[in-house]
Amino acid sequence: MTLKGEVEDMLWKKISTVGVGMLAWGCLSGGMAEAKRNVLEMIKTDVKADISSSGNITGEKEPNDDLLSPQKLELGAVIKGRINKKEDMDVYHFAVASNKREVIMITLDNTAAKFSPHIVVYSHNREPVGYIASQRAGVRTLRAKMTVGPKEEYLIQIFSSKIGYGLEYALKKIDEIKSTKPYFLEVRKATLKDGILIDKHEPNDDLLQPTSLELNTSVKGTIEPLRDVDYYKFHLASNKKEEIEINITNQAKNIAPNIIVYDGNREELGWRGTEKGAASVGAKLVAQPNRDYFIAVFSGTFGINAEYALENRHKERSDKYYSLEVKLVSTAADKYEPNDDLLKATQVSLGKIKGTINPPWDIDCYKFKALKSGKMHIQLLNPALEITPRFIVYNSKRIEIGKATTKQKGAAKIGMRENIKAGREYYVKIYSGGLYDSKPDDAHSDKEYTLKIEVK
């Protein structure tokens, strides 16, 4: 039987018995902060391990009976120890030297018939972060895997005890057994043979430590460990708005790919999710010039909103890569960008101005100075069938004084007339929108419109 669970889900809970009555999860009485970061999964039950035949065996060195005097344990080595005195316990120390997270495999091979093995993992500050135990004496093998690091230290405690109501109880009821038969303990890095594949970008679990990603490139990642979330960051170096396309390609049938996009202030801009096993999920973003953006990738529940999906990430992992691609969509932005609002309006002269409504939700703003008083004639010539042309005219105080609209998508021409005074500054705002729309729609085109301004 394969048993899975998370340490934070077990805190303060009465110990649970499992199907075959042989192994159990323990509950912890502390270490909540560490528990949220570390997952201890029992992965096999009473199956004989083969670590006793390892060529890299080190003998136990007493005294190693408490958390203050542990014996050093090298990753990949096997310790041969014994519970051979009253209320004996053995403590070992190991360190994760890697600069990225790792998954370790913990195996205890027991040869003593009276030994009821318990394994407790502690953080470097001696807070318990994981606990598994047998339910009877003589259980041959305990095996678990756990996400650790980077560059962290841990303690492992081995003892024999009566099953009860969690770690605190177990430590008070340590068995008074003495055995000449040994146990063998191995702590090693997991490999692909164990079904574990950690990408090189870890740790990138929050918005404060994202992996940098260049535009028009792709990156491979994995959902590992359970409930993993990967954050990426990219920068739009352009001096104008651009349309960005984000795509996830998924190979794993147990993963439901989700993406959330954030702006440079880490405020959510949008979310896309799908069902388990979906081959891909994607989104488009109109990015502002010279801004940072963040992307979260995870396996989540498709439903209410981004926050719900992120908080309810699936308890899944995958040994298959996903691919994240962030690319610049080809646009034909005009030379006047960025001019998205009246404060960024491009200074122009009277006559003809050519521009584009591109990318989606684009706004173009222009300003000009009247050289003489008279009747101003403004026309907007539109060649794009996708665009519903609209423009608004403002005075020097940026107060609306007139507008031209239509409800016809693809309208070829709209216009208006207005009296103006010499020496005054005026503004024109152009976008695609309906007859009563005060905001632009997502229609866009690389075909150039022509704005004609004359004073008669």
Write up this protein.
With 456 residues, the protein is mostly beta strands. The chain folds into 3 domains: 7-191, Jelly Rolls (Sandwich), CATH 2.60.120; 211-328, Sandwich (Jelly Rolls); 342-455, Jelly Rolls. It is built from 4 helices and 31 strands. It has helices at 7-10, 32-35, 167-172, 306-311, and strands spanning 16-17, 23-25, 40-44, 57-59, 71-72, 78-81, 89-95, 102-110, 117-123, 128-134, 141-148, 153-160, 183-189, 211-212, 217-221, 229-236, 242-250, 257-262, 268-273, 280-287, 291-299, 322-328, 346-347, 351-355, 363-369, 374-381, 389-394, 400-404, 413-420, 425-432, 449-455. Strands 1-2-10-9-12-7-5 form a 7-stranded mixed β-sheet. A 6-stranded mixed β-sheet has the order 3-11-8-13-6-4, with no helix packed on it. Strands 14-16-21-18-19 form a 5-stranded mixed β-sheet. Strand 1 (16-17) and strand 2 form a beta hairpin. The longest helix is centred in the middle third of the chain and has 6 residues, at 167-172. The chain is rod-shaped, with a radius of gyration of 33 Å. Residues 1-38 have low confidence and may be disordered.
Strands, helices and their partners?
Blueprint: H1 7-10, E1 16-17, E2 23-25, H2 32-35, E3 40-44, E4 57-59, E5 71-72, E6 78-81, E7 89-95, E8 102-110, E9 117-123, E10 128-134, E11 141-148, E12 153-160, H3 167-172, E13 183-189, E14 211-212, E15 217-221, E16 229-236, E17 242-250, E18 257-262, E19 268-273, E20 280-287, E21 291-299, H4 306-311, E22 322-328, E23 346-347, E24 351-355, E25 363-369, E26 374-381, E27 389-394, E28 400-404, E29 413-420, E30 425-432, E31 449-455
Parallel strand pairs: 4-6, 5-7, 14-16, 23-25
Antiparallel strand pairs: 1-2, 2-10, 3-11, 6-13, 7-12, 8-11, 8-13, 9-10, 9-12, 15-22, 16-21, 17-20, 17-22, 18-19, 18-21, 24-31, 25-30, 26-29, 26-31, 27-28, 27-30
